[in-house]
């Protein structure tokens, strides 16, 4: 925080003036270079200002993002979000989460990206940040497009367009406005609403004429133009557009940052049987590191493999398939097992239409696997960690009660030894069914591991939490599952430990988890088949 002392008001004015000058300079031009970012951090140290530190790290993140250094980008964003949160610079905080999401998309972590986008969206909505809200809506729309959910994506883009049109002009305003028009128009074409798409194309052309000196997303606009031309069925004009697209791709260093365009290009070239241009397209993106973009390669695989088979290039097809299986096997060993299955599925599909329909269902299946435990259909540890982090931060910012419960089945090892592991699974599923039934907007249940479950209570009073805890106890007993080797009852029971408190500034998520574990320990120590709710920190 800023240091108090002589001339505090004067110092605050000086800091604010410097920040305004830096922001104004950035909005008039392109990204800052390394030296400028370093100067900002040096000035922050001289002024002992968290606000200026935040600005410096944020612009450093932009610099590293353009240098394709994801690790340093995320480090700088982590530092600047701490600063922005402390000094209440919510506009930049929302933008920081937006950039974190963009980096995560670039790393093929779509679930993580959505988490960042929605976190930024909370700040944008709460503080009425229209421009940032529009940016985040646009990027969420992009992920929906990747999931082939064009209608939902179009709704996001429509909202973003309205917000942009209500926002003030800045250096990147026209670029972002054009990008939303482009994406929205492509979605309308996918949804068979050509009139809406053509109307947006007319607006986009007028925007380019009105602002000839501004930067526009050239490749995206050419894709949109090609899609519009394709809707009219004009082949010569389409080829002209495609030649322009290929020429710009040759000048693109990082195809990951135009990844949303590539699938559209492949689809159009295949649809119009432009096989020579399709072959050239694949050569271009290969030369620009397609093999490093696994999710992008996965999306393009069906077009490429079908093209090679069509051209009777069997050896290349087999080599392509082998290389992808090898790459995805390596990726699987790095805890990303699902990608190889997607490639395997795609290779078996018989037609482009059938592939799209099945991939929609499979994407949903992948999402469920990533977030939910396969046995109980409760949230898994990955989903739990993301949810807990979000709710902990919310409770900390808004001074709300947060409850963390650990629950496990009493003497479960003996139950398994007595009745067998198959019946043990049935027992776990029966308890999970009860937990699923108490889930709500404020009660989040997950499988923590084995016979242990974790429940997060958000914005509920201690008494409301107690009622839910006791309901779970009673309903488990009501199952009347025989357990003749239990140390506390002749039926299956559970022990529960709950820690409820308003998180303070120095508290961390793991503090609450550890205290819930202590409460569970006390419940077991006192005889099991009971719950213990702690509201203060305690020791074993």
Write the layout of secondary structure elements.
Elements: H1 8-28, H2 34-47, H3 50-66, H4 70-87, H5 90-106, H6 110-126, H7 130-146, H8 150-165, H9 173-190, H10 194-210, H11 218-232, H12 235-250, H13 259-271, H14 275-287, H15 294-310, H16 314-333, H17 338-348, H18 352-371, H19 381-398, E1 402-409, H20 412-419, H21 421-438, E2 443-449, E3 452-458, H22 462-479, E4 494-501, H23 509-525, E5 531-534
Parallel strand pairs: 4-5
Antiparallel strand pairs: 1-3, 1-4, 2-3
Structure description:
By secondary structure, the protein is of the alpha+beta class. It is 70% helix and 6% strand. Helix 10 crosses helix 11. The longest helix has 21 residues. It is globular, with a radius of gyration of 27 Å. 38% of the residues are buried. The N terminus is likely disordered.
- Coarse morphology: globular
Q: What's the rounded overall pLDDT mean?
A: 83
Report the uncertain regions. Answer: 1-9, 334-353
Percent strand = 5-15%
Key terms for this structure?
about 550 residues, about 70% helix, 5-stranded mixed β-sheet, alpha+beta
What's this entry about, in short?
The chain is of the alpha+beta class.
